[in-house]
Design brief:
Bound molecules: 5-O-phosphono-beta-D-ribofuranosylamine
Order of helices and strands: EHEHEHEHEHEEH
Helix content: 25-40%
Largest sheet: 7 strands, mixed
Shape: globular
Number of domains: 1
Number of helices: 6
Structural class: alpha/beta
Strand order of the largest sheet: 3-2-1-4-5-6-7
CATH architecture: 3-Layer(aba) Sandwich
Strand content: 15-25%
Number of strands: 7
C-alpha cells in the first residue's frame, strides 16, 4: 500500500504545491500562521495545520503537538520543504527514519539557510539540489539523491536560483515516488 505523506513548510510552499499536484498529501503543517503555503493548501484542497513554537512552553511541547498530528493521521513519510526549523529530539525520537528534506545545494557543500546565496557568493560554477534523511544536525543526514545544477556565465542570482528551483521540482517528486512505493 502507498505510504501517507505530510509536508512541512514555513513560507512560500512552491515545493509543497508541486508535491500536492502529484501525490495525495494527508496534510501540510506550517510553523507560521498566515503564510502563503496555507493559501496554496486551501486552493489545492489539502488539509493544513499551523501553530507556532512561541505558543508553547517548550520546543518539546511544540513538537509533541506535531507528533500527535502525525500519529492521528498515521503518517509514514514527512517531507520537509522549506521548513525553517531544526528538527528537535521529540520529533526525531518518534519519526526519525521517516523524515526527508530538500536542500538547494549539493550537500555537504553549502549547508544552512542561505545555500543559494552562499554558493553564488562563493563563485562556484555549479551547485545542486539534495534530498536527504533528517537527523539532528543541520543538513547533515544521509543523502538519498542529488543532482548538479550549473551556474551559467550570464546568470544573475535570480536566474541561478530559478534554475535550482526547477531542479527541486523534478527531483523531490522522483524521490517521493520511490519512497512511497517501497515496502
Ligand atoms: C527551497 O529552496 C528548499 O530547498 C529550501 O527552502 C526553499 C523552499 O521554497 N529548503 P518553497 O517554500 O518550497 O517555495
Amino acid at each position: 500500500m502507498s505510504k501517507k505523506i505530510a509536508v512541512f513548510a514555513s513560507g512560500n510552499g512552491s515545493n509543497f504545491q508541486v508535491i500536492a499536484e502529484q501525490f495525495p498529501v494527508a496534510f501540510v503543517f506550517s510553523d507560521h500562521r498566515g503564510v502563503y503555503v496555507l493559501e496554496r493548501a486551501k486552493n489545492l484542497d489539502v488539509k493544513s495545520y499551523a501553530f507556532e513554537l512561541k505558543e508553547f512552553a517548550s520546543k518539546a511541547a511544540y513538537e509533541q503537538a506535531i507528533v500527535d498530528l502525525l500519529d492521528r493521521h498515521q503518517i509514514d513519510l514527512i517531507c520537509l520543504a522549506g521548513y525553517m526549523k531544526i528538527v528537535g529530539s521529540t520529533l526525531l525520537a518518534a519519526y526519525q527514519g521517516r523524515i526527508i528534506n530538500i536542500h538547494p545545494a549539493y550537500l555537504p557543500e553549502f549547508p544552512g539557510a542561505h545555500a543559494i546565496e552562499d554558493a553564488w557568493n562563493a563563485g562556484v560554477n555549479q551547485s545542486g539540489v539534495t534530498i536527504h534523511w533528517v537527523d539532528s544536525g543541520v543538513d547533515t543526514g544521509k543523502i538519498i539523491k542529488q543532482v548538479r545544477v550549473p551556474r551559467l556565465p550570464d546568470d544573475t542570482i535570480e536566474s541561478f536560483e530559478e534554475r535550482i528551483h526547477k531542479h527541486e521540482y523534478q527531483l523531490y517528486p522522483r524521490v517521493i515516488k520511490e519512497l512511497i512505493n517501497k515496502n
